[in-house]
Amino acid sequence: MSVLPQVLIACAVLILPGLIISVALRFRGFSALALAPALTVGVVVITSTLAPFLKVRFGLLPVAAVAVALSLLGLWAARFRPSGPAATGLNPLRVPDVRGDLAALAGAVIAGGLLAVHSVHLIGSPQAISQTYDAVFHLNSVRFALDTGQASSLTLGAMTGGGAYPAGWNAVATLVAMATGASVPLAVNITSIVLAAVFWPLGCLLLARSVVGGRPAALVAAGIAAASLGAFPLLMMDFGVLYPNLLAISVLPSSVALAAACAGLTPGLVRRDLASILALLLALTGLIVAHPTTFMAWLTWTLPMVVTLVWRSAAALRRKQARARSYVLRLALPVAGYAVAFDLLWTNLRPPPEASFWGPYQSIPKAIGEAVTISPDGLALAWLVAPLVFLGLWACFQDRWQRVWIAGVFALFTYLFVVVSGFTKSETRDFLTGVWYNDSYRIAALLPLVAVLLVAVGVDWAGRRILAMRGRSKAIELALDGSPRWGRAGTAAYRSVGIAAIVLAAIALGQQGGLELEVEQGSRNYRLAADSPLVSTDELQLMKRLPQTVPENALLIDNPYTGAALSYALGERKSAQLHVMSYVSPDVQRIYDSIGNVTTDASVCQAVRAANAYYILDFGPVEVHGGDHTPAGLRNLAANPGVQLIDSQGEAKLYKVTACGN
């Protein structure tokens, strides 16, 4: 059965709330559409956080209500937006750039189509699940939010006995499940496809357009580049599985574009007006709750912007330009505040040291090679993107160094990847990359964004150089326009065929290398087989029968490392542990430790009755990471006289505790 209608519904639900806000803020054309995903995530985060305080269930109507309220605020803020030439570019009010809009949209469509195909190939079946460690928590969290009507970052952690948890992705996936009526696995997969094939391309093209303007060649090149790198978005659908990072990085480009516009580093864009600032704040609200580490990536992106502003103000002072002194004085306080905030956030907004245990895996020279060629973590060389990145770096130092801050961003993330993957464990490494759990995969996924922007910058610079030489070189004129004897129609046909050939060749080249390898590797983690590491075919069939074999209010005892905890998301029966590492009550812990003595120890039956835990799901000794965490009480269940086998499928077994009555 086709899931395309559900994908389209998900697209509408995840774009329309942000779109009405961006239009209210007087963003227009492609800019309004491209900003919508980031603004929608902000709306969803605000709604899910407020819902418990307002005593309402999270869902479509509350999200719509918050979107309408924020759009009214946007209409008020837009009154203070300048019009005329200063308002063109990102927010064309008087002079719409239709050609630039169409070029940006074409780039996004190309990228979205390619990434949709790759995402579908990677996931495989619509109902497939990621056979990885974190899939247990993420899938169960969606089921938990659907059951409780709450997807707040302040309450979702209670599912595992923990505290606050950044639940932006969980709220977005829950909203998709509510809107489409899809099962939990299908809703999660639809969400991944929308993030990869819609959110990411729109954000990349928004950022590229904000930097290079509406030049079609550069924008189409950016779109092709956005769909030509294995490190993002596909890597986040493979490793982990890091669904929150997939969401956060997919909306990072929009937040960067807004920051650059507010800093005045994008040609012809609105600077520091109230509407742009409000849009940035809403986007950052969604970003930080989607994943705080990606907010720190945004903060890293802004560092070269601030340095550029300081450098320009110092240069203006040296030239003794009029009003330069007052400008510097106005800039001094915000820059000082930024420096203090950056230091506080970098020092404190990071995971605990015990969660940042990842070590290096390669030498420093190899790490440098992987970073500069955008082929991190063993991915094959990006044959199309890597050479264009070098061209973009060269272009950053042309045109009076107007775009040198982008080269600074590239240098920063290259250095961070070299540190995390090549430096030995040390306090310096912890300080620099502990923000990202000292995990090379999380930093590797941040490299593609700056690479896509450099591709746009490089192609834009090269295109302008070629056009500038057009009148001075007959060979270039012939290559661009064909023979003068062909006439206007012949020249148009020649250009159309040439452009189509270049685009198709670029697409074909871009799909080789790291992207092709990542699709192949990632698909293995979604394959359902008899020996799947998390949930096998037999285990899945047994879980699907749980609604017929286990009462609705029963609590299942199991070893979550074997994937049995997914009985909640896949079998609609709650496990005692909804994540691999969860808090359990003393009664449940007593069962885990001593159910083997249920016929001789009366306290075990007391615990079984108190927890209503009469059923045990046994998926054998195979665990997702190959360890052995089987609790003492769950060993040798077949020899336990106090339990009875009531269902089985291959090695997967369901037992009922019979020694304690009903």
Short summary:
The chain is mainly alpha-helical and 662 residues long.
Written description of the protein model:
With 662 residues, the protein is mainly alpha-helical. The chain has 27 helices and 4 strands. The protein has a 4-stranded mixed β-sheet. Helix 11 packs antiparallel against helix 12 (292-318). Residues 84-95 have low confidence and may be disordered.
Tell me the layout of helices and strands.
Elements lengths: L3 H21 L4 H26 L5 H18 L20 H26 L11 H14 L19 H13 L3 H29 L3 H11 L7 H5 L4 H20 L11 H17 L1 H27 L5 H25 L15 H9 L12 H12 L7 H19 L4 H7 L6 H5 L2 H22 L5 H8 L5 H24 L3 H11 L12 H8 L1 H4 L6 E3 L8 H5 L14 H9 L7 H10 L3 E4 L24 E7 L2 E6 L5
Parallel strand pairs: 1-2
Antiparallel strand pairs: 2-4, 3-4
Number of strands: 4
Biggest sheet, strands in spatial order?
1-2-4-3
Q: What shape does the CA trace take? A: elongated
By DSSP (H or I, 4+ residues per run), the number of helices equals 27
N-end to C-end Cα span: 42 Å
Sheet with the most strands, sense and barrel status: 4 strands, mixed
Uncertain runs: 84-95
The amount of helix comes to 55-70%
Summed over residues and divided by their number, the pLDDT gives a mean of 90
Give me the secondary-structure category: mainly alpha
* Radius of gyration (Å): 27 Å
What portion of the residues fall into strands of 2 or more residues? under 5%
Features of the shown structure:
662 residues; four-stranded mixed beta sheet; 3% strand
